[in-house]
Amino acid sequence: MELTQLKQFKTVAEKNSISLAARELHISQPALSTAIKKLEQELGLPLFEHAGNRIRLNEAGKIALRYTNAILSQSDQLKTELTEYARRSSCIRLGFCDQGPLWYCIPKLSMVSNQFEYSYYTMPVDETALLRSGRYDILISSGRLNAPDIISRSFIRERIYLSVSSSHPLAGESSLSVRDPRIGSILLFVLNGTFDKKQTPFWDSLKGQLNITRTTDYFLFSQMIKDPEVITTTTEIVQHYRNDGADRVLIPLTDPELTIHYHISYLKAEEKMLDEMIHFLEHSAEL
């Protein structure tokens, strides 16, 4: 008994007609009739009642169809799981806790390989669980993951810069704190990723001394920063994919709350398999 026989039997049972089933299966009526007779011989019972040009399942046929549907369904599930396994074994799945490092790394990876998939996950989330569950092979995590079965190495230390027009009175400063009263007001473009969420309490604590405007609309943000009086922020990674204009001066901010240390994290058991991808990611972070 073969799956092809069962598929043919199922089609005949659904169509109640050898001719209609043969047409759907793209085989001749004699060939289909022979296949059905062979199946009945293997099972030792007739499966259909014949009435002129029409046929219908008898009681034995109804039992056979029930098992046929179960077998074909399991066969489809088997194919789906094996296809997924093959896809997963040939692709490395990358997870990014922030859009910044994602936008920074993916264009570089795309130039050398298509054997990876990636997505962006948001807080709060158990990052160790994301690795152990198999959802991701490598995480660019928001900090070091302290677990005996996970390797977590320093990847990128991200910090914020003040972005001001070259004509602004603050443009000549070598560094600043956002608590400096001369800043007065600041425009923040937020993506609501890990970096932004970790900084939110800090920015909220400054509301009494600093006028803060937040926007998630990049078009609006890009128009607003054309005003030379507008002060905004940027980061080292952001500078690789966002251009705020040639007349902008970047001033390092000294506030320790405005940094985040990204780590590259993966299971120890998969280190050998992931070695090439990890090496490329770490090299790209140095460029």
Structure summary:
The chain is an alpha/beta fold. 42% of the residues lie in helices and 23% in strands.
Description:
The two termini are about 60 Å apart. Strands 3, 4, 5, 6, 9, 10 and 11 form a 7-stranded mixed β-sheet that branches. A two-stranded antiparallel sheet has the order 1-2. The chain has a two-stranded parallel ribbon with strand order 7-8. The protein has 3 domains: about 5-90, Winged helix-like DNA-binding domain superfamily/Winged helix DNA-binding domain (Arc Repressor Mutant, subunit A, Orthogonal Bundle), CATH 1.10.10; about 90-155 and about 260-285, D-Maltodextrin-Binding Protein, domain 2 (3-Layer(aba) Sandwich), CATH 3.40.190; about 155-260, Periplasmic binding protein-like II (D-Maltodextrin-Binding Protein, domain 2), CATH 3.40.190.10. α1 (about 5-15) crosses α2 (about 20-25), α1 crosses α4 and α2 packs across α3. The chain is elongated, with a radius of gyration of 31 Å. Helices cover about 40% and strands about 25% of the residues. α7 links the parallel β7 (about 185-190) and β8 (about 210-215). It has helices at about 5-15, 20-25, 30-45, 60-90, 100-110, 125-130, 195-205, 220-225, 270-285, and strands at about 50, 55, 90-95, 115-120, 140, 150-165, 185-190, 210-215, 230-235, 250, 260-265. The chain has 9 helices and 11 strands.
Topology:
Blueprint: H1 3-15, H2 18-25, H3 29-43, E1 48-51, E2 54-57, H4 59-90, E3 92-96, H5 99-110, E4 116-120, H6 127-132, E5 138-141, E6 150-165, E7 185-189, H7 194-205, E8 211-215, H8 218-224, E9 232-235, E10 248-252, E11 259-267, H9 271-286
Parallel strand pairs: 3-4, 3-5, 7-8
Antiparallel strand pairs: 1-2, 5-11, 6-9, 6-10, 6-11
Helix pairs in contact: 1-2, 1-3, 1-4, 2-3
